Amino acid sequence: MFTYILLDSICKLRGERTVSNIYHLLTAKKSTQTIQDSYIYQLTNYFGIYKRLERKTFQKELRHLYDQGWIEVYQDKQVVLTTEGRSVLNGFDHSQIYLNGMKYDNHALFTMQVIQLLVQTCTHIQQHHDTFIPVVDDESVQQKVKEIFYYYQKDTNTILYHLYQELTRLFEQAPEPLGHLFTDQLTTPRHIGSSKIQLAREYGQTVHDMHCQLMNLSHFLCFAIEKDSSVSFLKEIVPHERNMNLPLTGSAQKTYKLWQKGHGLEMIASQRNLKISTIQDHMVEIAYVVKNFDYSPFLSDHQLQWIANQIDRLQTNKLKEIKESLDDHISYFQIKLVLAMSHQQKEGVF
Amino acid sequence: MGELEEYLYHYFGYSTFRNGQKEIIEDVNEKKDVLAVLPTGSGKSICYQLPAMMNEGMVLVVSPLLSLMEDQVKQMRARGFKRVIALNSMMAVQERNRQIQHLHQYQLVYVSPEMLQNRQLTAKLSRMSIQLFVIDEAHCISQWGHEFRPDYLRLQSIHKQLHAPPILALTATATPDVQHDIMSFMGMRDVNKHIHPMDKPNIAFLIERVNHQEKKLDYISSLLSSYQVPTMIYFSSRKEAERISLYLDEKVEGLRVAYYHGGLDTQDRILIQQQFMYDQLDVICCTSAFGMGIDKQNVRLVIHYHMPAEVESFIQEVGRAGRDGEESISVLLYHEHDRNIPQRLIDSELPNQGLLQEVVDWIFHRQSIPIHEVESYIIEKTGNETPWRFIHYQLEQIGMKNNSIFLSETYSKQWVLSQLQNAYQQRLQYKISKLLTMEQWVLQDEMCRREALFQYFQDMITPPNGMCCDQCDFRWDHWKTNRTVNNQEETASTWKNKLAQLLLQETEYEI
Ligand SMILES: [Zn+2]
């Protein structure tokens, strides 16, 4: 699956970006550039799905693709698929991929871990094992599980019964390995769950493939919980609150707050002691995710139409090409804004 | 049951103390300064945890081992004691500041030595009533300790700043010289010493020299084919730990093996540790990162695939065997090239000559430079914190440290450089002599291994209650040990059945 994701990313970037961009995408090094690129090239699904990936490992995998003759690398580190690579990519069955990185991001891991820790907690308490080392270290997950546990008045039978009913329902609709993978990871007093590395060996996959499989599993869970109206227990304990946090960099988040208060770009720049171009980049990020983005301070309707037409005609995402086809007084900032907004129209983001 | 035993039972569920714990706690409760040398696995931590729970006032524990602190906090919380916290410099600043503000809510506070440089923290601590100042791994204070940590030398002034509460200095390994260093440096008076021998009567020592590296593999796989018992195999590299783990998994039928090192995900680390703890795994191939936080009683075999860089680490790692008192075995495998591995580790721990020159040039060029800039530069360059700690301490000693900057003005560059180089040479020589001592033990064939190993630390050895060593009386066929019970449950055929088995197994009984 990891190979598929790499090949698919390379394919979608069409040689217009470097390999580093893919690395930043997978590890969600949240820079404005990474976020913009992932929208432009329709790679939002893979955003942040492998945050612990080391650069060394990433390069080794690319090297492997290269040795197989599936990719070609140009001097300036741009990559494209070879004909062979393309046919390998087309050979993959991608109907079972549920990844949606930009949407679920940290929520997916959170959901998965809450369920795992809830199972561990309830089965232990039920069988009178009051002390145990939690398999999840994350404080926010532990907090959440505590809340659920007390909300259901420590009624472990009820919690476990609901979990069983609803998880079975969801995994019956899922592709075969997901139910297995899910149960193999669970920890109860009689059995400690399998680690990622152990699962990889059991399923005869690389650790990277297994990582992606497990991410896919957690994204499937989020997706299924959101979609299936009958899993009310899971919906209640791990709800996905839309737009609670817009997928913005922290810095863009701050800019957005000031902007909402009615501050202008220059003012925000001086308040935050940042360059105006940085604030403009934040606005572009915002234009990708905020519905009905108010572009009027930056663009006239006429300019918007004109830029949009040129993008349509040229069928490219290369800023320089677009800029050259327009008048000098149209700025890169304006072009990026239009790219962002036209992306929203196409995708109907969120 | 005495009063202390009642507390022990109430908080920990044990009805008796292990060797030495009670006497130490009694001294601590009488507000005396205490130096305790207790072997690993003898329950050092209870000596301050129990006073923290039963007495007024806070107990402050200084420990360099991040993961150990966190494990202990977890275990205590799991037991229901929530007023415990670990502060370390890895935390986000906001989170840390929030915790410092609320510090008075805790009775047991673990801090790393670096954290004690945080003025906000020391200011807060000096306003609180501290009943006990615990120095864990106290041998780090001594220049002659195998793990000398310059940060520990600041403990003296910090202890004063906190109005000099009673001290409990704990360590698992300390020669008489090191013990002396600890007490005199911390200004401990009327010290009550509790020195326990480090040798355990139930561990036998074995050295296996091979003339080809791959023979180690044959040796281990044939050994583990005959003895499927809880085993730890120590490696000095992550890669090797992984490689041998996979090899054994394929080679030895029915053996359950996994590897563990600092490079794994947090969740994978927890799972592997717990699996080993509950006998779901037989063998752990690990680096020294493993084992500090876990208290597994029935480890029967500790194998060193590579020779450690000093005797102290070796004793500590071997000490994880046979905590339940059953006869257990330490095997060290040696190939003559092995001495290069710890040599490389030593090199990576010390800043090399080039780096010293570079840093000094830089500081003199800039004249004044924020310390954190130097810190991140060195850590990034070497990928290791130890060289930075070394340079930081030396510059501080020279007097170039001025609050949070290094100032070069009143010094001669040549002189500073030569000071650093001397210190470097001394440390290097010291480390190499440690390595030679280790190797000497491995290569000597005249003495009993047990006597030779412990001669640096104690005058007498406890007579073994089983076999002694391969020089004396060791024979594999005299080892009476039981196979690990493989309590693997019948695994259900489909995930759905398995899920039902896991989630609903007890429900029927309770309805
Ligand atoms: Zn002997």
UniProtKB/TrEMBL annotation, chain A:
Superkingdom in the source lineage: Bacteria
Organism per entry: Gracilibacillus halophilus YIM-C55.5
Domain Helicase Helix-turn-helix, chain residue ranges per copy: 251-339
InterPro entries: Helicase_HTH (IPR029491), YpbB-like (IPR008308)
Descriptive protein name: Helicase Helix-turn-helix domain-containing protein
Pfam families according to UniProt: HTH_40 (PF14493)
TrEMBL record, chain B:
GO molecular function: 3'-5' DNA helicase activity; ATP binding; four-way junction helicase activity; hydrolase activity; nucleic acid binding
Single biological process term from Gene Ontology: DNA recombination
Pfam families membership: DEAD, Helicase_C
UniProt cross-references to SMART domains, sorted A to Z: DEXDc (SM00487), HELICc (SM00490)
Domain Helicase ATP-binding positions: 25-192
UniProt keyword tRNA-binding, yes or no: no
InterPro entries: DEAD/DEAH_box_helicase_dom, DNA_helicase_ATP-dep_RecQ, Helicase_ATP-bd, Helicase_C-like, P-loop_NTPase, WH-like_DNA-bd_sf
CDD domains the record matches: DEXHc_RecQ
GO CC terms in record: bacterial nucleoid; cytoplasm; replisome
Keywords noted in UniProt: ATP-binding, Helicase, Hydrolase, Nucleotide-binding
Domain Helicase C-terminal: residue ranges: 219-367
PANTHER family from the UniProt entry: ATP-DEPENDENT DNA HELICASE RECS-RELATED (PTHR13710:SF84), DNA HELICASE RECQ FAMILY MEMBER (PTHR13710)
The name this protein goes by in its record: ATP-dependent DNA helicase
UniProt source species: Gracilibacillus halophilus YIM-C55.5
